[in-house]
Sequence to fold (343 residues):
Amino acid sequence: MKERRIWEELSRFESHDYVGKWYLRRHRRTLNSARIREVTSCFTQGREYFASATNAATSVRPLLLYYGVLSLSRGVILLLNSAKSESNLRPSHGLEVVDWQGTLASGIANVPDLRIRATSGTFGELAATRNLQSTGWWSAPSLAIGTYYAEYPMPRFVGDDSEMTLDDLLSRDNRFLSLYTETTGRPSRVHLGEIVADKDGLDVSIFSWGHGISQAIAESRFGLPSTTKFQVRSATHRLPIENYYVRLQGSDLNALKLLLPATQYVGGDGMFVMEDFSNGDRLSELLRTFLLSYFLGMLVRYFPSRWISLLRNEKGDVAQPLLIAAVNAVGSDYPTLVVGSLS
Fold:
């Protein structure tokens, strides 16, 4: 039911008249019929790829989903960047694989260690257009939740020639929080968190069971200023659980937002704190899901025998449950994230 509603919302962007009015409101300029058709075609094609993926076998589903992600992303770029048209969009994905043959040579257990780097193309254009993350905090004394969008800088990854592993993404995704640690045996880099605002500042709590957080880690992994100092306490404003705690003092809460670690609020008690990537990047869930889809789609396309080995429960398939969960997350969440990016 939820999935159907999301596609009903996205279907508006397959309407010539709606896209024309939306674009006029957004950019204060008229889009001609040819340019409107470029936008609507992306959303039509994206919907059809996702529909095909719904009925496809798992052996090919990730590739169909990636093509759907790519189509929807190009539609988002055309809508949000008034300088872009189909003729000047880069024809490449904006990403490339790095020695996957060598990584997989010793078996499918190494799938989480697959690496990519950014090139010129769609991913960079999407990152330049939209790197916003929905998040929030609780306000004292009522503890009512207030949400806002955190705007992250253009990722360095797009232009610094650094590499990213599949594990870098999976370990920073709250959708796989417990499954990640159970399947890989590696410490997660996303943590349950709590941020409470009062008139004099912000209380930031990070729950990191079994993984100590030193001051150096606080600065390098969470981007917190060196002037802050982590403490351990037995409870937060809302939860009677041991946590790592820092106080950000100041009456200008908008200024303090810039000092916060990367966070994501998903409703209810679901607030998560994500460690920065090794080069200091922070990526929205939209961008992280795009990258996740690329990893999975290219694995299916270029190394189908390894993907089939994972599905057939062959030796070394320890990451299989995690990867299947990732495929499902791409299929269910990317259309929703696109709706949010256009709201």
Summary: The mean pLDDT is 93. The radius of gyration is 21 Å. The chain has two domains: 2-128+284-341, 131-274. The chain has 13 helices and eleven strands.
